[in-house]
């Protein structure tokens, strides 16, 4: 597949895709998932995700990773098992972070542990503070943003694996 074809299907410029290919730019997680989908590969083909085994996930033993901004981290709380329907992760986002509009199959549940965030789903805006949660159908277009001057810590549980 040519860069032109990937560009047209993913909605990113050829120049940006070329920069990603050469390691000069880092796409957002949503863009990376779209690129992988168009190419018919798993995101694992591009990212070394932390591998875990067993049912127990222990604090201090899990690896975290980031895409782009090193202050935005993802920590998989369990790799699950074949056929697992729930996929939990901790996401820490810095002040000022705004995600792209995303949509994917399944359901998402988010619980804000620290900080405040804006969660916009199908154009409807929701402000979530520490202790608040939201459960939604993730096929609806959604995006999120960190509010205030502190980082957020969010527990996400998805029915679609972070890395299929």
Q: What's a quick, concise take on this entry?
A:
The chain is of the alpha+beta class. It has helices at residues 3-10, 14-21, 29-39; strands spanning 64-66, 73-76, 87-93, 107-114, 116-121, 124-129, 133-137, 142-147, 152-158. The longest helix has 11 residues, at 29-39.
Distance between the termini: 22 Å
Protein structure class: alpha+beta
Largest sheet: 6 strands, antiparallel
What's the tally of helices?
3
How many β-strands, per DSSP? 9
CATH class of the largest domain: Mainly Beta
Quaternary assembly? single chain
Order of helices and strands: HHHEEEEEEEEE
Topology:
Elements: H1 3-10, H2 14-21, H3 29-39, E1 64-66, E2 73-76, E3 87-93, E4 107-114, E5 116-121, E6 124-129, E7 133-137, E8 142-147, E9 152-158
Antiparallel strand pairs: 1-2, 2-3, 3-9, 4-7, 4-9, 5-6, 5-8
What would your notes on this structure say?
The chain has helices at 3-10, 14-21, 29-39; strands at residues 64-66, 73-76, 87-93, 107-114, 116-121, 124-129, 133-137, 142-147, 152-158. The chain has 164 residues and is of the alpha+beta class. It folds into 2 domains: 3-45, no CATH class; 64-158, Jelly Rolls (Sandwich), CATH 2.60.120.10. The chain has a 6-stranded antiparallel β-sheet with strand order 1-2-3-9-4-7, with no helix packed on it. It has a 3-stranded antiparallel β-sheet with strand order 6-5-8, with no helix packed on it. The longest helix is centred in the first third of the chain and has 11 residues, at 29-39. The radius of gyration is 16 Å and the shape is globular. The mean pLDDT is 85.
């Amino acid at each position: 597949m040519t860069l032109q074809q990937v560009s047209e299907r993913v909605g990113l410029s050829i120049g940006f895709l070329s920069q990603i290919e050469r390691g000069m730019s880092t796409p957002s997680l949503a863009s990376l998932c779209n690129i992988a989908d168009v190419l018919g590969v798993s995101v694992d083909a591009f990212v070394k995700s932390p591998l875990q085994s067993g049912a127990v996930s222990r604090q201090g033993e899990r690896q975290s990773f980031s895409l782009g901004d090193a202050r935005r981290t993802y920590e998989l709380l369990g790799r699950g098992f074949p056929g697992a329907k729930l996929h939990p992760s901790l996401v820490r986002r810095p002040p000022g972070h705004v995600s792209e509009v995303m949509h994917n199959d399944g359901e998402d549940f988010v619980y804000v542990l620290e900080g405040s965030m804006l969660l916009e789903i199908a154009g409807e805006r929701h402000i979530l503070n520490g202790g608040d949660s939201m459960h939604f159908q993730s096929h609806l277009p959604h995006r999120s943003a960190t509010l205030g001057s502190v980082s957020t810590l969010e527990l996400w549980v998805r029915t679609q694996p972070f890395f299929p």
